[in-house]
Structure formats: structure tokens, C-alpha cells
Amino acid sequence: MKIALFFLVLFHSVLIGNQDPVPSKYNVQEATLCQGDNLVLGDKEIKFKEIISDSRCPKRVSCIWAGEVKVLVEFYQDGKFKGEKVITGSNYSAGNASVTASTDISIAEFFKNSEFVIKKVVVMPYPEAGYKIGEEEYSLQLMVSQALKK
């Protein structure tokens, strides 16, 4: 029985290993930005302007409401301002990392003829009881995807 299982696993591994990789249908870019930094996407840019508010429930504190964080981002194309958007979320703390539920925020309104979507937004650091986060301490992790044209 063990020998048959071994050959079955070996055969399955060979079949999977010989498959051609699936071509990507998306161009995905990820970056961690400090306030004022830009994520450059060719001739397009997303700028982390500022944290508008942060009312997330601090670590190791029981809260009735989880709170939320609001981030202002700006969009530029060819160096020209195209608009801004407030992104609101309620990421939560998981150990030492801050995790945000997956998001699909369309930003096509700022970049015509493109299918850009913000897939992930994480605001760090996560609040701790008794400590006020300074403006300069915040960072924003963004994952942006663009559907590739066929």
C-alpha cells in the first residue's frame, strides 16, 4: 500500500512539474510608502498624502467598536494631478502585523483607459494603548493590480 501511494505521489509530482506556468493576466505592484512618497506605475503615480483619522481599537484593549482609519491618497498622470480619494478601512492587529481584509478599490476614474485596482491597503503601525502615533511614523502598504490587455 505504501509503495502504491509513493508511486501515485511521484507520478502526480511529475505531471504538475511539467506543466507550463500560467501566464499572468495582471501586472501587480506592491510598495510600502511613508507620508509624501509615491508608488510609480509607469507614467502614473499614487501618492500617500496623509492619515486623516485613526480611531482603530488599540492592541490588547477590548473595544465595543473596532474603529477605522482614513487615508488620503492622490493620483497623478504625467506629473499632472488627477484627483484624490479617501480610503477608509478597519484593519486589525494579528500578532506583530496589521492585516487588512482584501479590498478591490477601483481607481480607473483617475487613470482613463486603464484597469487599475487597489487590492490591499495596510496602515502601519497599529495603535497601542497609551501611545500616540506621530504623523511621521505612519506608513502605507499598497498593492495595485492592472489587468493586462490581450
Plain-language structure description:
- With 150 residues, the protein is mainly beta.
- Helices cover 11% and strands 46% of the residues.
- The protein is built from 1 helix and 10 strands, in the order αββββββββββ.
- The strands form 3 sheets. Strands 1-10-9-8 form a 4-stranded antiparallel sheet, with no helix packed on it.
- β2 and β3 (44-54) form a beta hairpin.
- The N and C termini lie far apart (48 Å).
Describe the SSE topology:
Layout: H1 2-17, E1 26-34, E2 38-41, E3 44-54, E4 69-77, E5 80-89, E6 92-94, E7 97-99, E8 105-106, E9 116-124, E10 139-147
Antiparallel strand pairs: 1-10, 2-3, 3-4, 4-5, 6-7, 8-9, 9-10
Spell the H/E element sequence.
HEEEEEEEEEE
The percentage helix is 10-25%
Radius of gyration: 21 Å
**Strand arrangement, major sheet:** 1-10-9-8
Mean pLDDT: 79
The percent range for strand residues is over 45%
Which descriptors would you attach to this protein?
1 helix; 4-stranded antiparallel β-sheet; 10 strands; 150 residues; mainly beta
